[in-house]
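Lab meeting, item 3. Inverse folding demo.
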């Protein structure tokens, strides 16, 4: 019997930029951002990487060093958290995301942020094309339509806190 790959997780925080958050209903946004911070803290506690992914678009004014481009100040990211800038919905498409993840020896991804019907979903699909195990994070993805978000969570088996904690507690930490 062959040796199984050990789980080496990373949290991908996708497109929770000030510009994009304007399109999310306040109630949904507040709840998801609280959850995202909770997962950032949980991944930090277990010493696993948090990768922040930003969408760049001159057309929409999403350019670096603008307020619209940035994540809200309330999000617990740190400057040392790796940053990936994308121009396509899939965070892997023409970016160095795969290289960053391989450099950190990650093989299992937890995806939160925006949009459940767009970039978060596209990155989830892209992860499989790069041989990662990937999970959408329940109650930590959002879209302008809560019903669509709920349907995505159901259709693609989004995982919640209990599963994530179990995986992090039993994952292979770097020595």
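The presenter then showed the designed sequence:
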């Amino acid at each position: 019997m062959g040796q199984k790959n050990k789980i080496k997780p990373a949290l991908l925080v996708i497109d929770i930029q000030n510009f994009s958050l304007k399109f999310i209903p306040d109630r949904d946004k507040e709840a998801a951002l609280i959850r995202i911070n909770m997962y950032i803290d949980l991944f930090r506690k277990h010493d696993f990487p948090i990768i922040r992914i930003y969408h760049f678009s001159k057309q929409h004014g999403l350019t670096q060093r603008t307020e619209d481009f940035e994540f809200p100040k309330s999000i617990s990211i740190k400057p040392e958290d790796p940053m990936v800038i994308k121009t396509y919905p899939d965070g892997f498409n023409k970016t160095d995301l795969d290289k960053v993840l391989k450099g950190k020896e990650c093989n299992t991804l937890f995806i939160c942020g925006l949009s459940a019907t767009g970039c978060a979903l596209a990155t989830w699909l892209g992860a499989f094309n790069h041989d990662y195990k990937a999970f959408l994070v329940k109650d930590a993805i959002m879209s302008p339509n809560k019903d669509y978000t709920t349907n995505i969570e159901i259709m693609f088996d989004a995982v919640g806190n209990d599963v994530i904690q179990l995986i992090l507690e039993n994952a292979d930490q770097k020595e």
